[in-house]
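As the next step, I needed to go through one protein, both as residues and as discrete backbone shape codes, included below for the reader:
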Amino acid sequence: MIRRMLGVLTLAIVLPALVCGSAVSAQENFRLLGEKEIRARVIGKDITDASHWATYLRSDGVLMRNEIDHKWTGVWKIRNNKLCMSNSSSKSLNCNEVWMSGENIRLRQHKEEETFDAVVAKHQAN
């Protein structure tokens, strides 16, 4: 009985540490992409949360955004190794660094700022 309780207690302590360690390790696998890598890994695909919205970056510079009840188009460009995109309320471009780990993508204006996290997936025609 005591041995079983010690086993459960050990699991309760060790498991969260392993999970946190995996999260830290996964964070370290994110790499900052340059222009060529952004074109190869992101352009022509969807940036999405896999359920509520998707942003399709066409190779001709057109951005197509599909949200649950709203669709709009804009433009995208790559400037100084950053992905610059317009949004629905403005024609000005917001530029972000592109960090990727596998199919996971993080967009942020500067390395030390909060990230916008999503996944890159094969484009799903609407």
Summary: The chain has a mean pLDDT of 82. The helical segments are 2-28, 35-41.
